[in-house]
Design a protein that fits this description.
The chain contains five helices and ten strands. Helices cover 33% and strands 30% of the residues. The strands form two sheets. An eight-stranded antiparallel β-sheet has the order 3-4-5-6-10-9-8-7. A two-stranded antiparallel ribbon has the order 1-2. About 7% of the residues have low confidence. The chain is globular, with a radius of gyration of 19 Å. It is of the alpha+beta class.
Length: 175
């Protein structure tokens, strides 16, 4: 009986306590550009100044909104980027203010809420589920990615590996 209870408890510890976030505050993956603009205007911490923060890539119709939370007074956010593809928000990048919060505190809180990362390296920690790829990257950046949109873009890309990438893969395969 003790072994069964221990096994159930161990499984419980491995399961994230909450599903992965689909964004931060008012910014959520899948939003259209007008909804995000309206939402950012209402949340001071992003430092959104209006349409002058929006740019368009003319070749592929992708939109990018850049904000600077440091200009909004008291905020834990620095520069933030919101990338759109097919008229939907699919990547949110938030640079956190390193003078107000540290990497270890953020990492510890994320592990407490979402369990251990699925991928861990000196550069970043990554949590994944079917809908969201969520990462904490050094020095102190949070990234929320719509997994389905990202994988769709990746699959439709016809970019081949460079010779250096192929040689690197061959080397790693030889180990």
């Amino acid at each position: 009986m003790k072994k069964i209870l221990f096994a159930v408890f161990a499984i419980f510890l491995c399961v994230p306590l909450f599903s992965l976030p689909d964004g931060y505050s008012v910014a959520k993956l899948g939003m259209d550009i007008d909804s995000l603009k309206d939402a950012l205007k209402k949340d001071y911490q992003f430092g959104y100044r209006g349409d002058r923060d929006v740019s368009l890539s003319p070749s592929d119709g992708q939109f990018l909104i850049e904000t600077d939370g440091a200009k909004s007074g008291f905020s834990f956010l620095g520069r933030c980027w919101f990338q759109f593809a097919n008229d939907k928000l699919y990547i949110i990048t938030l640079n956190l203010d390193r003078t107000k919060v540290d990497h270890y505190s953020v990492f510890s809180k994320l592990c407490e809420k979402y369990g251990n990362p699925d991928e861990l390296s000196p550069q970043k920690s990554v949590w994944k589920d079917d809908n969201v790829i969520f990462s904490l990257e050094k020095p102190l950046t949070l990234k929320y990615v719509d997994a389905k949109a990202f994988n769709s873009k990746k699959d439709s890309s016809n970019v081949e590996k460079t010779t250096a990438e192929k040689v690197r893969d061959d080397f790693l395969d030889s180990l």
